[in-house]
Amino acid sequence: MFDIPAGDFALSIEPLFCRPDRENERRHDWIAVRMMASVPHIRAEKESEMMRGEIEVLIQDIEKMYASIQGCRKPRPVEYRAMEGILDLDLTLIDLPRGAVRLTFAVWSEPANGIRLIGSVPIDQTFLPGMISGLRQLAAFE
Fold first, then answer.
1. What InterPro entries does this protein map onto (predicted)?
2. For residue 86, which of 63, 54, 56 has the smallest C-alpha distance?
């Protein structure tokens, strides 16, 4: 399971089942997920699908960001837009010496319309390895 407990914001993505690609191209497998997002007094839950390949790209982007911060270099922002249109995540460096990162999120109840839960929260770069680990578990789900 993938979890981000960041201050007043929490996001978890739990894999439910995997729908393999017809041509056995693993990165094109679809993973059905239950996504839960919450802020004070509001909790949203949605089932959707994520492509294994898009999760792997997000892992690589966060790994690059973390390596840059660890090397005292300004990283490129991470921008993730779920193919199914129900989740956006952005990670942007706020303060390099402190390793502070801003996590901006948007979770939709339905793609392109419906209720949208949006927000932004500062996190420490020490959250990034846990995010990477959770995403790896999600991408490895069979």
1. WapI
2. 54
Question: How many angstroms separate the CA atoms of 2 and 13, rounded?
Answer: 5
The string of pLDDT tens digits covering residues 45-97 is 888 899 999 999 999 999 999 999 999 999 999 999 988 888 899 999 999 99
Q: Give the Cα separation of 109 and 100 in Å (integer).
A: 29
Q: Which residue has the tokens 């010496």?
A: 97
Can you tell me the distance from the alpha carbon of 94 to that of 100, in angstroms, rounded to the nearest whole number? 5
CA dihedral 14→17→18→22, nearest 10 degrees, is: -150
Rounded to the nearest 5°, which phi and psi values hold at 76?
A: -75, 145
Read off the tokens for 115: 């209720």
Phi and psi torsions of 62, nearest 5° = -70, -40
Assign 3-class secondary structure to the chain.
CEEEEECCEEEEEEEEEEECCCCCCHHHCEEEEEEEEEECCEEEEEEEEEEHHHHHHHHHHHHHHHHHHHCCCCCCCEEEECCCCCEEEEEEEEECCCCEEEEEEEEEEECCEEEEEEEEEEEEHHHHHHHHHHHHHHHCCC
